[in-house]
Amino acid sequence: MTAVVQTDRLTKRYGGARGIEDLSMTVRPGEIFGFLGPNGAGKTTTIRTLLDLLHPTSGSARLFGLDSHRDSRAIRARLGNLPGDFSYEPRVTGRAALEHVAALRGVRDLRRADALAERFRADLSRRIGDLSRGNRQKVGLIQALFHEPELLILDEPTGGLDPLMQEEFLAVIGEERDRGATVLLSSHDLDEVQRACDRVAMVRDGRLIAVEDVAAMRARAHREVSVRFAGPVAAAELAALPGVTDLRTTADTVHFHVSGPIDPVIKAIARHEVGDLEVTRPTLEELFLSYYRAGTA
Q1: Domains in the chain, please, with CATH?
Q2: Strands 17-27 and 58-63
Q3: CA–CA distance from 297 to each of 78, 293, 294 (Å)?
Q4: Which segments of 197-255 does DSSP mark as H helices, in order?
Q5: How does pLDDT run across 52-82, given as a tens digit for each residue?
Q6: Distance between CA 47 and CA 43 in Å, rounded?
Q7: Which of 38, 112, 139, 275 has the largest count of CB atoms under 10 Å?
Q8: Which of 91, 97, 55, 94 is nearest to 72 (CA)?
């Protein structure tokens, strides 16, 4: 299947300043692809280059198999975009803004826009300049979604939204994936990415440091185990088990990491009287920071 988004050594420099460097990635049809990194990592530069708002210094980008620069008009007809700094003429209402965008796209039926406004609790009768950041963001989301595009490119889409609307946003993009749309979601919100995305690309200082399947990445990660025994247990017994690392004790509790199968550890623990047991996996944030530390090293 043709990739929906594909970059090959995409580079954008601002004179001598860094933008993005040799960025190669592929976004598959029908997936939610997270583009993850802290502010200033190069996420917005990448998106603006994909949209032909910036021209690459070198390398290439293709969307739907089309050249991002030469075929930019045909590409934009098939996508919905929410920029990270969404703004509009402050004197017009949200409804007037949507009607204008709909006219440009040749869309006459705004019933989907109205349905989205109801879900996001967006008041389209108010002037955009009078809206809070979160309520402006709702209008931005609606204009990106209402025409049911094949590709959604969303840059920090939940900025300013309250937790309830963040939940609604996650539900909506899940429905978009279900209908066959592809989503490129740029974010520094690790919880959002963890809950929404199928795969994630991690960028650091303008360079791609990893592309990972979110579920597989978490499955490979170590578990954090904390065991409180009812009586003394030799720490060496647990330290000798396969996959056990970073063992330490505090008072009557033993803490350690386990990589790989956990069954041998559970069987060893079960030979003793256990007062409490807790097994957790690292958050995506912890995994992400481990990649960053590795990249620094």
Answers
A1: 5-218 (3.40.50.300), 222-280 (3.30.70.100)
A2: unpaired
A3: 41, 6, 5
A4: 214-220, 235-239
A5: 999 999 999 999 999 999 999 999 999 999 9
A6: 6
A7: 139
A8: 55
